[in-house]
Amino acid sequence: MKNLLNPKWILFLNSIPLLILSFILYNDYSIIKSLLDEETHSLWFQFSSALTLLFVGNLAFAIYHYIKKLKLNYNYAIYSSIFYLVYLYCYFQHLNEIVPSTIPDWMISGNLFLHMGTFIMPTLIHSILIFTLIFTKDIDKASALKNFLALIAIPIIAYLSSQIGLPILHQIDTNFSIHFIIIAFILTTFLFLFFLIRLFYILILKKGNAWKKYQLAWKIPVCILFPILGLLINNGVSSFSQLFVNTNGIFGNFSSPWFYLFALVNGVLLCLPKFKNYRLELLLFALKTILFTYIVYFFFVFLPYLPFALLAIIALGTGFLMLTPIMIFVIQSIQLYNDFKDLTSQFSKKTLLIIAVVAFSVLPTTITFNYIQDKYVIKETLEYVYNPDFEKEYKIDIHSLENTLFAIKASKKSKDAFVFGENLPYLNTYFNWLVLDNLTLSDTKLNYIERVFFGEKNKSREFLNRSTSKDNVTITKANSNSVYDEKQHAWKSTIDLEITNHDRDLSEYTTKINLPEGCYISDYYLYVGDKKEYGLLTEKKSALWVFNNIRNENKDPGLLYYLNKNTIAFKVFPFAINETRKTGIEILHKEPISLTIDDENFTLGDSLQRNNNLETKNAFYVTATAKKNLQKVIRKPYYHFVVDASIDISNKATIYTDIIEDIIEKQPLEHKSKISLVNSFTETFDYSSNWKENYTKNTFKDGFYLDRGIKNILFETYKNQGIQTYPIIVVLSNNLNKAIIENNFSNYTSNYYESEFFYTINADYEITSHSLVNNPLETVNKVSSIPSKNTISCLKYEQNGQTYLLKDDNQLSVLPNATIDFDNTSNKNWENGIKMQAQYLHSIFYLKEYQKEWIELIRASFASHIMNQYTSFIVVENEAQKAALLSKQQKVLSGNKALDLDEETPQMSEPSLLLLLAIVLLFFYYKKIH
Known about the structure:
By secondary structure, the chain is α+β, with helices and mostly antiparallel strands. The protein is built from 26 helices and 24 strands.
């Protein structure tokens, strides 16, 4: 422990924590600075300067002592204690001024109260340890009894002083009273921690006294009973049946059996006597070092709350349990040091150091390995569900997935709890960083994944949303203008809208715009007050997150983003009663188009000026004029039966086989049918003589993932465009209401022109039709038989040895293409828009490099200033919102495409303040009843 006098500890316990704290504070300040007034800016400057001076002062002190080979002395301890306590006192006094209540919670990265305590407390504890070493130089003369009496006297004196002093202070000036109480509290707590650490330092090192002789009398309670009792109280365990069940704890979710096991084993190891067998001692040294990681973890968990331990002792009595980690930390540190020193007589220091480092790394390495496994599982799961490679066979560890989803849900629920709730302090932060790239999964996606793999249907958390009824907010004036750009041979059209709220206050305008093929949005504006604000082109998830947070505060966001390959969502908020707001969009298009927004129809471009058939050498499209000269093809149908193979339907297997045979017998088709068995996964085979055997061998599992089953079929149709057949999709299930479909299949019908319907048949042979592109689970019509004749033609187009089948209509068609060379030097270039769409259409079915393509398309969108399926135009009100948006965007782009930002407005909880408030209330209640 005397090694703590080495100046290098200043680097680890002061310099590094302060650098981390400074980084957090700087990030928060850089986002909110535009919202701060001059006085608040001055406060930030003052506290930043003071923190910098403290950092430089400590670092200079460490460098000087290191060069001079001097040990730290009481001067450093006094300096650190006084200056950092004063800094904390002043900081907390002005916290509400540093971050005014006008600053939205979602702009702050976390709890500034907790951050300050977490990163400055190591310096204060280090100072207390130095005081302990300096005032206990002669261990033989140090009295454990006197120290113990001083320790228990402090809470008693504090309680008596409060009984006598508080009524007196009540008669004095309120501000003086508050300052006096806070200063007295800080000094008393500092002394209490000093005597506590010094007591155990004396008990461990002093030889030949009663404390040493009967050490088990205090070691067993402190090292075994207190940790287990603390876990039980934290987890709210009042009966044996609740032991490993209650996951909602005061300071975190420590309900796992491992926490109890580690506490018990570590306590037993600390209570064991010395053995003469050095190999056994070496083993015990390694075990104690392994579990020392466990103690260090809890030491840091409770570090920010140590100042409130004294209040908890006075008010509750059980508050001493908050001090258990620091007590065991001191005991175990000294024991390990002594064990190391004793073992050097039999083993080299190098060997012992290697053993110590390896042993200390066991638990962190195990946790990291498990998290890496979770990262792989969640990556595979997200890829399978949201970015599938249709040619890849997926094998997902369901048990690991279940654990990973539980960990994600626990970290999401932490904001709803008293302090940490179901969260694991620090470990959840590490989990979010390593597994989730500091992002999360929305409740919608979590529930969706659980339904796919576990057949569960959990309701997402419901939030109070304002009415977005379009009936109350309508377009009252609309104008359009089109200009032909000779340079890029395309039209640039603008649509200007005036939108009026006819009813309630704080209404939202929301609508959908269906864009024709080859039509792209290149700009957007919204009037905020009298100022015309142009939209920022940003990554879509970041824009949605910021829009929802701004909307919750009744500010002025406007938003445009893609819902699918050609449908745009358009939102403006808020509208006061009878308010009219002006907004508009700019559109690039190759040919004249007709566009509808609500009830307003727009004709954009002039057919007399259009360029009929200009194509580049890398043709990514075919114009409507060119399509008139293409060969028409009428494809022949075949049945593709999609059979529900979920566990709920296993008793209907023979009924479905009979229905399939009956359809094929009564309505035979020229081409051989196919059958897909669908549960969490999909297995497809040809209809043949042994198809029943394949079906009955299938293992019925949870989930009816119809979404993937139909997408597989549409992928095969897209892939085999040279084969002139198409599937009639027939779903056999009695539980279509339990079928899992994410949205619809509009993105996947690029090569499926003959029909927009699929058909379902239940065990009673009732046939219904359903739309592939609009609410697939809703019945469109009941039919007597499955339509099997085709009269719909498509167009055959060949390029570079590849065959494309195009829709037979009077619109431009975009050709999917994997390799795109974007013109990054040209702003608002229509050809870049068509290239982005070509790559996006290809990536819908071929997602092997989805992460890379996602980034490429976002960069191409930014460079060309054209919105695509991964970006969004958003209008925000001020620079702080822009800074927050760009910060979130950077976070999203560095993570997995399928992960999300928080779907709720993050609340800036203050657990330390809550804890202090609860303790103080209990304290006054205790006084009242006594």
